[in-house]
Amino acid sequence: AQSVAQPEDQVNVAEGNPLTVKCTYSVSGNPYLFWYVQYPNRGLQFLLKYITGDNLVKGSYGFEAEFNKSQTSFHLKKPSALVSDSALYFCAVRDYTGTASKLTFGTGTRLQVTL
Amino acid sequence: GAVVSQHPSWVICKSGTSVKIECRSLDFQATTMFWYRQFPKQSLMLMATSNEGSKATYEQGVEKDKFLINHASLTLSTLTVTSAHPEDSSFYICSARDGGRSIRDTEAFFGQGTRLTVV
After folding, report:
1. Mapping DSSP to helix (H, G, I), strand (E, B) and coil, where does residue A61 land?
2. Residue B105 in this model has a pLDDT that exceeds 70
3. Chain B residue at shortest CA distance from A39
4. 8 A C-beta contact, residue B11 and residue B115
5. Mean pLDDT for chain B?
6. Measured between CA atoms, how close is A115 to chain B, in angstroms?
7. Do B104 and A32 touch (CB under 8 A)?
8. B9-53 pLDDT, tens digit each
9. Most buried residue among A64, A86, B118, B119 by CB atoms closer than 10 A?
10. What span, in angstroms and rounded, lies between the C-alpha atoms of B76 and B52?
11. ∠ at Cα A94 (A26, B79), nearest 5°?
12. CB proximity B14 to A under 8 Å
């Protein structure tokens, strides 16, 4: 079975500073990894994904994530945080079995960006 | 990205009544849709996988007679919470995957979520 760990419940960063939201994964086969963002009382918005290829993946709103196979990590990063980035971030891994594929989510990390 | 519309965005119902939540893929055909439940300050819990034209697959511990799922077309799946009770109050989110694209490469698109409150 696959799993995802987000070790930080909350990350605080000042606007303009770089941010990192951590994610580690466990999967038996090839990992298909995703980051989503959730604003209050809303569904999840897709940010980026890693399927194969370059370890550095660029996504929406200036976010990027670095896939590190040896450390089984897929940390989300942004060079310069904005107050509007404050939200709940979920890392997810896909288990492809049979004809359906399920996403397993981490527990989420709340990002708080302050002026 | 593709658009998934979920309706209603919030609903309040009396205990013992049933509530239907709709999930529509607006610009793609979704052969598979997923229903999640999210408790406050917690992650998403997959409830069931809905496949067009066939019975839904429920996760362990989810009562299929209580949470009825229908996926009658390639663009619509519904979740009906039957005989709702206050403990069913939660945030329900659907997601869908574009059936015309590779399963491996395709991210899931999520609806806006439905806040259900049972009083």
Report:
1. helix
2. no
3. B112
4. yes
5. 89
6. 24
7. yes
8. 999 999 999 999 999 999 888 888 999 999 877 788 999 998 888
9. B118
10. 9
11. 130
12. no
pLDDT digits (tens, 9 = 90+) for A39-73: 987 888 999 999 888 899 999 999 999 999 999 99
CA atoms within 13 Å, Cβ hemisphere of B32:
20
Residue among A101, A104, A109, A110 with most chain B CBs within 10 A, to mutate: A101
Q: How far apart are CA B105 and CA B119, in angstroms?
A: 42
* pLDDT reading at B84 higher than 60: yes
Dihedral angle over CA of B35, B92, A42, A67, nearest 10: -40
Chain B residues with CB-CB distance to A100 below 8 A = 32, 49, 51, 57
Going by C-alpha positions, the residue among A38, A50, A63 that lies closest to residue A93 is A50
Rounded CA-CA distance B40/B1 in Å is 27
Tokens (6 digits) for A54: 């370059």
Name A18's bridge partners. Answer: none
How sure is the predictor about B64, in pLDDT bands with cuts at 50, 70 and 90?
very high
Task: Look at residue B118 and tell me whether its pLDDT is greater than 80.
Answer: yes
What are A58's strand-pairing partners? A64
Mean pLDDT taken over chain A: 91
User: Burial code of A32-69, b = ≥16 C-beta within 10 A, e = fewer?
Assistant: bbbbbbbeeebbbbbbbbbbeeeeebebeeebbbbbee
